[in-house]
Give the backbone structure.
Amino acid sequence: MVFNMYSIRRPIAAGMTTIDANKPLRTVIGAVVLLCAMVLGACAEDADNGAGAVSAQGPYRVVTTVGMVGDIAKQVAGDRAAVSVIIGPGVDPHLYTSTRDDVVQLRDADIIFYTGLLLEGRMIDTLTAVGRTKPVYTVTDLIDKNYLIEAHGQFDPHVWMDVSAWSQAVEVVARSLAEFDPDSADYYQRNAARYRRQLAELHEYGLQRTATIPSTRRHDKPLMVTSHDAFNYFGKAYGLDVRGVQGLSTESEAGLRRVNDLIDLIVRTKTAAVFVETTVSRQNIQALIEGAHARGHEVEVGGELFSDAMGSDGTYEGTYIGMLDHNLTTATRALGGQAPARGMQGKLVHHE
């Protein structure tokens, strides 16, 4: 794939091309927008002095929107930067709106990374405003648009569910940091190469483990039912037929027909387990379980998966590798496949 540095140099403009003009995003609350206008003047002075100049007083400041992006930045930047994440564990980025503290944090950042593909839809206004005065990058710019899954006029943003696809975001971060801090370019590339090797091992683990899941009765692929459509890339990468009760965004409502269709599919295929998510209510999954029971088929919760946010800070599941190790291991075991109880690295704590 040819890399175009300009495409990530002004990522807001690139990201906006995916927005359907006939379906405008909800605007950020007035107080936040007003605050943006007030604080961005301070940002402009920094930008005029050269955003790429790294402070001699210590690590520069990297701000990211979600934990999956923050983990890449931490791995690549190493001790050169202090990395912070705005949307923490257990918080749904689809519904998140910037706060006053977030705007201040973005104002004080030296460089900013976010997922793009409208995952952080309610933050777009804020990110656009900040992007006029300092470097703001979307980490999904290198992913081939032909690979992306499109539904209802927009791309599915949950690309981190395919480890091989998310690995390409590592290169975006490495090249962006190298542009920002040229003196450390080799350091960033070494860190990125090391991290991508670890991701390649995780991806291979996923391929091997999910391959042991038996095919669902009268179904081409093993069926995996989750709370919302966050696992389409997961299914695409690891050979599963993934169905979500809700749509791509947790703002979408689960219709009665959708619920009934999934109950029919679960009963017909004799699927033994369905999955809840850490950032989504269990209500819809419970409706599936009760509906299947009323039809004479028992299905249980196969586990809680990490979808739009990682695990708690300071835990293995609070890293991207731990998050996907958990999801791959949990799904494999619940659907009848073979995987070590404590995952690829023996570090999972929810499987003892």
Observations:
- Confidence is low (pLDDT under 50) at residues 1-53.
- Residues 185-210 form the longest helix (26 residues).
- The first strand starts at residue 60 and ends at 66.
- The chain has twelve helices and ten strands.
